[in-house]
Hints:
Elements: H1 5-8, H2 10-25, H3 32-47, H4 52-60, H5 64-71, H6 86-94, H7 107-116, H8 121-131, H9 133-139
Helix pairs in contact: 2-3, 2-7, 3-5, 3-6, 4-5, 8-9
Amino acid sequence: xxxxxxxxxxxxxxxxxxxxxxxxxxxxxxxxxxxxxxxxxxxxxxxxxxxxxxxxxxxxxxxxxxxxxxxxxxxxxxxxxxxxxxxxxxxxxxxxxxxxxxxxxxxxxxxxxxxxxxxxxxxxxxxxxxxxxxxxxxxxxxxxxxxxxxxxxx
Length: 154
């Protein structure tokens, strides 16, 4: 079996993802490092609400670098938190590396925008539906057409 595309081209794939997220977050983010911190915060916020099997199922549909970010530093025995309001979860994402974090208020939507553009839609929709309606809502990108969210070929 050939090496999975995501493994062989992980850097190219991740740079494309970060560009989409950064562009969507706006001018406030001046570097890929800032975009990385913002995306990492969103992944941590989402992961904290999942059981270990849900984290693994979600990670299985992600590009390889995002999958690694999702599980890095994970405390698998932590009790999942309930999903909160959008503003509460944004504040939680902004708490990651506070001294180096200027994450904007649209961080979850911007990360969701980039995510949909870099994953298989059927796989992601299936996993989110299995996790539950809160997961579907978390990654929903309001006001964006299906065409804009089409998976990108890189």
